[in-house]
Amino acid sequence: MQSDNQESALTLKSDNNFRTTNDVEPSTLLDFNSIIKASQTLSQEIVLRDLLKKMMKIVIENGGAEIGFLLLPQHEQWFIQAESHFDRSEVKVLQSIPLQKKLPMSIIHYVVYTQCPVVLNNAAIEGRFIHDPHISMHQIQSVLCVPLKYTGQLIGILYLENNLSPSAFTPERVEIVELLSAQIAISIQNAYFYEELENKVAERTEKLSQTLDDLKATQDELVQSEKMAALGKLIAGVAHEINTPLGAIRSSVGNLADFLNSTLFQLPSFFKQLSQAEQQFFLNLLQKNFQIDIINTTLSIKEKRRLKNILISELEKHAIEDRETKAMLLIGIGIYDYENMTPFLPLLKERNSQQILEKAYQLASLRKSVQTIKMASDRTTKVVFALKNFARFDSSAKKVQANIIEGIETTLTLYHNQLKSGVLVNKNYEELPPILCYPDDLNQVWLNLIHNALQAMAYKGTLTITVLRQGDQIQVSITDSGKGIPPDIQAKIFEPFFTTKGAGEGSGLGLDIVRRIIDKHAGKIEVESRLGKTTFMVFLPLGESIRLVRQ
Questions:
Q1: What strand order describes the sheet that includes 461-470?
Q2: b/e map of 142-166 (b: 16 or more CB within 10 Å)?
Q3: Which residue from 125, 206, 366, 393 puts its CA 20 to 30 A from 2's CA?
């Protein structure tokens, strides 16, 4: 069990007695705006190397240190992973330097064991660490050593020295460093999470790349080469489709971290100071927020301004102060009109009303961040699944039961980035039984036809996909609103190497591949085209599939 003096920071007096920093009055001179700005700077950086450089610069400048070191554990041992000097611009990071070369080990061992900070006014001549070889050799004066803890676990140590003068680490500076240490620990852990995620993505990307390389190596015909070329055209869009939800996740995680740092621990005391009526007011606000679909209820800036003016006008009628601020908070919670605001009017006049609104708004924002993370995760999973399905290669070359609509949806998912900016997609799907087919080959058909349709419209227009049953066959129609195919070349478009595209834009094999795959399925393909409307119709037989279903 740790003794009482191990539960707080140690500061040396001239009489060699220890006192804790808890005995010092909290400074009223701290520039909290600077501290908040520094915390925000750290919370926004998720690349470990860049984070450590910014972190050390901020700590050195605000903590009054001449030199600083960051210690991080690696393989159950501690190493110096960042070093910064006040008079040098360079910050050395991620070099894994052993501690013994540069630091007093007795202080480091003490902090690791107690997980409490140490403050020394003149380490060389007073206190319990005067016999440390590093301290006696270099005649160290001021020392500040702070543990960095994340969810109660020690994840790092910040060691600062100032050998220009004793007592350099005043209570104010110690308080600054301790305030920053919580954000530093969170930011380091977030950087670890991001690095781990990047490694997993890189590993999966490498595996996918290897899979694609293997596929290319097995192809001995131009048809297969064209398929891989088509997949290559999608990679940039797929990468964007994955990066976009990941960006939303990172942003939402930042909001959650800010809430945990600044608001969570204030809630109990905040709730206690409210009257019973005010507590019910607060809970009713939260209940109102939980009744709305916060993800799909998106207001434009113009709409928010209109609603705000309406609420301000109503609040003015009831002589409620701070009307503009309260109107914006109400809209942020999900109260958009007078009817929904009416039950809250009496309490909006109370002294604590704005503080209650602010806390309810913060919790509403927290809920939205959680929903955003869920939605972004679902989107990423869908894109990765679609890419996996499309990139799959079935070497068995045997027909299997497959859902035609699922194959088309897989292709649309991969093309989502190109569709969302200016293409209206109309889907007309009949409920159909699975058919016996080569699904990987048919995915290539949908890919080529949809890609050609988007190019024909210059990625602006209407794409209509219809899937229906026509007697003993399935008909898939893909229609675009592009410029159409001239009548004199319609008969040539399925010929190999025929293309109307410029040099380097197409090989002329896309529609030849489509025709070959459909022939392989004993089906047929037709085209109808005029200015503003081109339709490719694919017919696939149902006969064998129907027989299997009946059996």
A1: 423-429, 461-470, 473-480, 533-541, 524-530
A2: bbbbbbbebeeeebbbbbbbbbeeb
A3: 125
Which residues sit opposite 150 in a β-bridge?
A: 153
| Alpha-carbon span 385 to 17, nearest angstrom | 65
Region for 356 from its dihedrals, namely left if φ exceeds 0, alpha if ψ lies in -120 to 50, beta otherwise: alpha
Indicate if 276 and 151 belong to the same structural domain: no
Q: Across the strands, what pairs with 79?
A: 72, 98
The answer to the question of residue 197 being in a domain is no
Per-residue pLDDT tens over the stretch 46-57: 888 888 888 888
Strand 18-20 and strand 142-150: the pairing is: unpaired
> pLDDT-derived band of residue 466, with 50, 70 and 90 as boundaries?
very high
CB-CB neighbours of 283 under 10 Å? 12
Statement to judge: residues 472 and 408 lie in one domain:
yes
- Of residues 345, 366, 363, 340, the one with CA closest to residue 286: 363
User: Running DSSP on this structure, what letter comes out for residue 44?
Assistant: T
Three-point CA angle 312, 316, 320, nearest 5°: 100
pLDDT (average), residues 210-216: 66
Segment 183-198, tens digit of pLDDT: 888 888 888 888 888 8
Confidence (pLDDT) at 7:
36
pLDDT at 105: 93
pLDDT at 96 over 70: yes
Number of H helices, E strands in the chain: 17, 15
The DSSP line for 262-314 is HTGGGHHHHHHTS-HHHHHHHHHHHHHHHTS-TTT----HHHHHHHHHHHHHH
Mapped onto helix, strand or coil, the DSSP state of residue 529 is strand
Question: pLDDT confidence of 378, banded at 50, 70, 90?
Answer: low
- In this predicted structure, the answer to whether residue 381 has a pLDDT above a threshold of 70 is no
Domain final position from 382, 406, 440? 382
Q: Examine the domain organization and report whether 505 and 541 are in the same domain.
A: yes
| pLDDT score recorded for residue 386 | 60
Question: Quick one: tokens of 205?
Answer: 């990307």
Residues 168 and 19 in one domain: yes
C-beta neighbour count of 193 within 10 angstroms: 13
**Does 201 fall in a domain?**
no
Count how many Cα atoms sit within 13 Å of the Cα of residue 245 in the half-sphere of its side chain.
Answer: 21
* Mean pLDDT for the chain overall: 78
Residue 282 shares a structural domain with residue 162? no
If one counts every other C-beta atom within 10 angstroms of the C-beta of residue 331, the result is 20
- Percent of the chain having pLDDT more than 90? 19
- Domain range for 362 is 219-382
- The candidate with the shortest Cα–Cα distance to 412, out of 380, 377, 447, 438, is 447
